[in-house]
Amino acid sequence: MQGLRAFRLFARTANNTARRNYGHGRVHKYPTLNDMPVPEGDYFTLHAKRNRKYNAILATGISMVSTGIFILSTDKIVRFHWNPPETYE
Length: 89
Description:
elongated, Deltameth_res_prag01, membrane, transmembrane helix, transmembrane, Deltamethrin resistance protein prag01 domain-containing protein
């Protein structure tokens, strides 16, 4: 009997939890363009700041790749075969 009472209490709580998520009969308000955020500040200063950051990232990437290619080509770890072989043996 005690187990049945606990099960009913659990079932009622679980049912109320699931039922509670439907908004209690309130009507859904559809979003409109007036609900969207309005831009603030100057676009050009923000764009210049972001562009400076992205250009620094680009320059760092190009320098790292070119440094890596230079190290690989001078240490003869990887042969790029830019010139024909010295001997044909």
